[in-house]
Write a structure and sequence with these properties.
Layout (H helix, E strand, L loop, with lengths): L1 H19 L5 E4 L6 E5 L5 E8 L19 H18 L7 E9 L10 H8 L13 E7 L9 E9 L3
Parallel strand pairs: 4-5
Antiparallel strand pairs: 1-2, 3-6, 4-6
Helix pairs in contact: 2-3
Length: 165
């Protein structure tokens, strides 16, 4: 019994030591592209999972259900990322702490029903891989049939990590 208790105490001490051995978040960048191919988050880091975030109304006078209510893909991307930035700030994090991003784009009628990847990238690159904020998250982008509210073209969810100390 004492031997078993001693082993359990040693295991607890080892787990505590492992938790305290926290390094920095390591990213493997994709050359000439503003995403990371992988992001290593050390044990003991605080993770924050943000639900899908959608754009706010930018033109309340536009016809209900139209894209004009929320703006084009670039406008919606900037507005969604601004909302995410505000949510992260409330958690004590920044856009530099984002390690994973899923981007959902609805086909744009102005682009023959294809997603506006270039418009999304134009908004995205204002927040990631810049001189002010060089970190890049791992990211996937997919086209979906639609979002809950007609006229919305962009929904983004992220995982952010604050390295332990």
């Amino acid at each position: 019994m004492l031997k078993r208790l001693g082993s359990l105490l040693m295991l607890c001490a080892a787990l505590t030591a492992c938790k305290e051995e926290v390094g920095e978040i390591k990213r493997t960048d994709v050359p000439n592209f503003p995403i990371a191919s992988s992001v290593l988050v050390p044990a003991g880091s605080d993770l924050v999972f943000l639900s899908g975030t959608v754009p706010p109304v930018v033109n309340k006078d536009a016809p209900q259900g139209s894209i004009e209510v929320y703006g084009d893909t670039q406008t919606q991307t900037v507005n969604v990322l601004t909302r995410i930035q505000e949510t992260l700030k409330a958690q004590g994090l920044t856009m530099g702490d984002v390690v994973l991003m899923h981007v959902y784009l609805v086909g744009d009628p102005a682009k023959d029903g294809m997603m506006d990847f270039a418009g999304m990238m134009a908004g995205y690159t204002q927040f990631f891989g810049t001189a002010e904020q060089p970190n890049k998250p791992a990211r996937s982008t997919v086209q979906i049939a639609g979002l809950v509210v007609p006229g919305m073209l962009v929904e983004i969810e992220v995982v952010a990590a604050k390295a332990g100390k």
